[in-house]
Design a protein that fits this description.
The complex is a heterodimer of chains A (about 290) and B (about 230). Chain A is built from 9 helices and 2 strands; from the N terminus they run αααββαααααα. Chain A is mostly helical and about 290 residues long. Chain A folds into 2 domains: about 5-125 and about 220-290, no CATH class; about 130-205, no CATH class. Chain A has a two-stranded antiparallel sheet with strand order 1-2. Chain A is globular. In chain A, about 35% of the residues are buried. Chain B has about 230 residues and is mainly α. Chain B folds into 2 domains: about 1-50; about 55-225, Arp2/3 complex 21 kDa subunit ARPC3, CATH 1.10.1760.20. Chain B is about 80% helix and about 0% strand. Chain B is built from 9 helices and no strands. In chain B, helix 3 (about 55-70) packs across helix 5 and helix 6 runs antiparallel to helix 7 (about 150-175). The longest helix of chain B is centred in the C-terminal third of the chain and has 33 residues, at about 195-225. Classes of the chains: A mainly alpha (about 290), B mainly alpha (about 230). Chains A and B meet through helix 1, helix 3, helix 4, helix 6 and helix 7 of A and helix 2, helix 3, helix 5, helix 7 and helix 8 of B. Chain B: This is ECF transporter S component. Chain B: InterPro entries: ECF_substrate-spec_UCP037395, ECF_trnsprt_substrate-spec. Chain B: It holds the Pfam family ECF_trnsprt.
Chain lengths: ~290, ~230
């Protein structure tokens, strides 16, 4: 997705994802979770017709099922017995708990899938370099080395294959040994190169002044207003959660699933927060139509 | 500067206590609170790392080792559950000390997840590999770790510990739902990954037996040749 939401300042993107993960995890209520789940599904559909979600689907599904099942399997507590299997009571309470945990985890995973798309390494590094500059440069160097090392491994493999040493065949013990020999060659090769990299960094003035960043993100008025808006929405939800709204008490006695009037308000704010990227994109589409 | 960093550490500490208190009150949110706890634990070490002004050569060295740890999986793609990442981090910790070992582990996990995709497992993976490096560095002066036998025990233990730490996030997701967490379900859960953990341990042992001597030699020579990380 390279839409309007993507174009916000990294701090806005990051705050949205952190806030959304927080909300999805603390509001353990079937209705809240269902709303969150539907919003995220719509979001992914609207975004790229589940294109990115496809490769995670199996993992999401198995994790969800596992978490959903394990609760009624090990937990017999509760007053509403649904059925009994071989003396094991499966209660409504335990199943509800399992279902809520599963929905919450799946929602978190869906949020991460879109996070991976929106928060590019560049944006994350920009944020890090403000607070943890040395950590940020270490991360940046590593990210740069990973593709380089991959290419070097290919080179090494090409030379080794010409000598008849291949990791693709032979007994697995031999293959492990040969594979590690590749990595050892990579190590000695890269260590010497590293000194050169470091010296040229130093020659270009590393450590003399404050570091500049490759991509500069300016926090403009729109970004700050958006950030304020998100923070207000989040605070309302958190306040609600602290006073016990937006969560379902199951033990010792299950309360009714229906919402009290104030909770509808909290639910609205909650949905508004989670919907935010969706609203931004829809707003953009409408504006585009109007301008044409 | 001194006073400021003391305030920061005190703040982090208070925050940790606060999270513990919250976890007593809101037993439904273990998973979330544990994320907070893990992130603060990182900050303690990362802030210490920030304070030490490092030479460019040392930084690049750490980055090279982290990148090798992350990329080292590639030649083993055809052999299931064999990867030298733990081995590389462990040897780096042994040679360059606890702090460097921790940073290499953390960065290797974070960087490889930035390529493969982040998820709720990221903080746990960072923590697990970071601790591999940290403990290797802490024990590098001990008599046991200077023998091959000691290193092998270390490798076996970490093969299983790593899997258990990685299981924690989903275990905590289950734990926050009422009474489902008891000894029985914990055992079942930990047992579910026992085969993978076993392979992880075995591959650690194979790498240690065959390569620990040469890798330690290479890294130690390099360290002495350029006078790196000698503080």
């Amino acid at each position: 997705m390279k839409g309007r939401f993507y174009a916000f300042h990294p701090i806005v993107n990051f705050s949205y994802y952190m806030g959304a993960i927080l909300l999805v995890m603390i509001n353990q209520h079937p209705i809240f979770l269902f709303v969150a789940f539907s919003i995220l599904i719509t979001f992914h559909f609207f975004n790229d017709c589940f294109n990115h979600m496809k490769q995670w689907l199996f993992f999401m599904f198995t994790t969800g099922i596992l978490i959903f099942l394990i609760n009624p399997l090990f937990n017999e507590r509760g007053r509403h017995v649904l059925f009994e299997v071989m003396g094991h009571r499966v209660t409504l309470e335990a199943s509800l708990y399992g279902g809520m945990s599963a929905l919450s985890i799946i929602s978190v995973l869906m949020l991460f899938i879109s996070y991976n798309e929106v928060m590019t390494p560049n944006k994350l590094l920009f944020l890090f370099s403000k607070f943890l500059p040395q950590f940020a440069i270490l991360l940046m160097l590593t990210l740069r080395f990973i593709p380089l090392m991959r290419r070097r491994l290919d080179e090494i493999a090409a030379v080794q294959v010409s000598k008849g040493i291949s990791v693709k065949q032979g007994p697995w013990k031999e293959r492990i040994k040969k594979g590690m020999l590749y990595v050892q060659i990579l190590l000695t090769y890269s260590l010497e190169e590293a000194i050169q990299t470091a010296d040229s960094m130093k020659a270009r003035g590393y450590g003399q002044k404050k570091r500049s960043t490759y991509e500069y993100f300016r926090l403009n008025k729109k970004d700050s207003l958006t950030l304020l808006f998100l923070v207000i929405l989040l605070s309302i939800c958190l306040y609600g959660r602290f006073t016990g709204l937006g969560t379902l008490t199951i033990y010792p006695l299950m309360e009714s699933i229906g919402l009290v009037p104030v909770e509808y308000f909290i639910l609205l704010v909650y949905a508004l927060f989670l919907c935010f990227p969706l609203l931004v994109e829809i707003g953009e589409v409408i504006r585009w139509r109007l301008l044409n | 500067m001194q006073i400021r960093s003391k305030i920061v550490y005190a703040g982090l500490f208070i925050f940790m206590v606060g999270l513990l208190w919250l976890s007593l009150r809101y037993s439904d949110n273990y998973l979330l609170l544990s994320f907070g706890f893990v992130l603060i634990s990182f900050l303690f070490i990362i802030l210490r790392f920030e304070k030490r002004k490092m030479e460019a050569r040392e930084l690049v060295l750490l980055a090279v080792l982290a990148a090798i740890a992350a990329v080292g999986r590639i030649p083993f793609a055809s052999i299931p559950s064999v990867q030298p990442t733990t081995f590389v981090i462990m040897i780096s910790g042994l040679v360059f000390g606890a702090e460097s070992g921790f940073m290499i582990g953390v960065i290797a996990a974070l960087a490889s997840n930035m390529i493969l995709g982040q998820g709720p497992w990221t903080p746990w993976q960072m923590m697990a590999w970071g601790l591999v490096g940290l403990t290797a560095g802490l024990f590098n002066q001990s008599r046991l770790m200077s023998t091959l036998k000691g290193k092998i025990i270390f490798g076996i233990v970490w093969g299983f510990l790593f899997g258990w730490i990685m299981n924690l996030w989903s275990l905590l997701a289950i734990a926050q739902s009422g009474e489902a967490l008891n000894i029985k379900s914990i055992y079942t859960y930990l047992a579910s990954s026992v085969l993978f953990d076993f392979f992880h341990s075995i591959s650690n042992v194979i790498f240690l037996v065959l390569f620990s001597k040469s890798w330690i030699k290479i890294l130690t020579r390099f360290k002495r040749k350029y006078g790196l990380m000698e503080k």
